[in-house]
Amino acid sequence: MLRIEGLHSFYGPIEALSGIDIEVKEGEIVCLIGGNGAGKSTTLMSISGIVRPRMGKIIFNGYEIQRAQPHNIVKMGISHVPEGRRIFPRLTVIENLEMGSFIHKNCDVLNFVFELFPVLKERRRQLGGTLSGGEQQMLAIARALMSKPKLLLLDEPSLGLAPIIVGKIFRVIQELNEQGMTILLVEQNAKAALKLSKRGYVLENGRITLKGSGEELINNPMVKKAYLGES
Ligand SMILES: Nc1ncnc2c1ncn2[C@@H]1O[C@H](COP(=O)(O)OP(=O)(O)OP(=O)(O)O)[C@@H](O)[C@H]1O
Ligand SMILES: [Mg+2]
């Protein structure tokens, strides 16, 4: 479904991605792990068109999208839940969701996200900025789902959340995947992410240093030491 080939992305003179290759097949959860500043968010932003890569290709369902505009990339079926949630704090829950639904104006998808996150239905008239951190993360995911994506990009969905909410978010990721959604997941919570994932990649300093099945990576000594806090 998605193939990234030899991708280089820069911020001015700073090279954040130095020729990465990643593949995500239809129906998979693929996770991307790596330390702070490794280039994980830059990878997702390059896919969704927020960062314009300098070299390389991003091929989505047969189309090269590395020069496409972000709104066209959403229309093609890619939705991005950015790091730090970025909901609209002064808009209500329902208004935030409507911002994500500029393509599909129907109630089905709204009912679908309210079923997935009943708390958002209860709080639909509440301002986004007054929700708890966990509820804001649910809102950010729900908003991304409003465009009915084929590929969902999730950047650190569990960051800063209480363990019980982290569990809920991971269950939702699994549920979405079981319903057929393909997911590229960036996570600090490497163990939980790898358990859920079909395959994974380790990114270090803008390069892929390791790839394998979720199970292979969980059992890899380097991954254990560097990312799972085990020796
Ligand atoms: N707007 C920017 N301007 C300049 N450099 C940037 C910018 N955004 C990111 N970088 C640099 O690009 C590199 C990759 O950053 P990126 O945010 O992709 O890392 P990350 O893996 O998502 O890290 P984290 O785990 O901390 O979120 C880092 O060295 C970072 O300092
Ligand atoms: Mg990041």
Describe this structure in words.
- The protein folds into 2 domains: 1-69 and 151-231, Rossmann fold, CATH 3.40.50; 78-148, no CATH class.
- 37% of the residues lie in helices and 26% in strands.
- It has 10 helices and 10 strands.
- The strands form 2 sheets. It has a 6-stranded mixed beta sheet with strand order 6-7-8-3-9-10, with helices on both faces.
- Strand 4 and strand 5 form a beta hairpin.
- The longest helix has 16 residues, at 163-178.
- Bound molecules: adenosine-5'-triphosphate (ATP) and magnesium ion.
- Magnesium ion binds next to helix 1.
SSE inventory with pairings:
Layout: E1 2-11, E2 14-24, E3 29-33, H1 40-47, E4 55-60, E5 63-64, H2 70-76, E6 78-81, H3 93-99, H4 107-116, H5 118-122, H6 133-145, E7 151-155, H7 163-178, E8 182-186, H8 190-196, E9 199-204, E10 207-213, H9 214-219, H10 221-227
Parallel strand pairs: 3-8, 3-9, 6-7, 7-8
Antiparallel strand pairs: 1-2, 1-4, 4-5, 9-10
Helix pairs in contact: 3-6
The structure holds adenosine-5'-triphosphate and magnesium ion (MG).
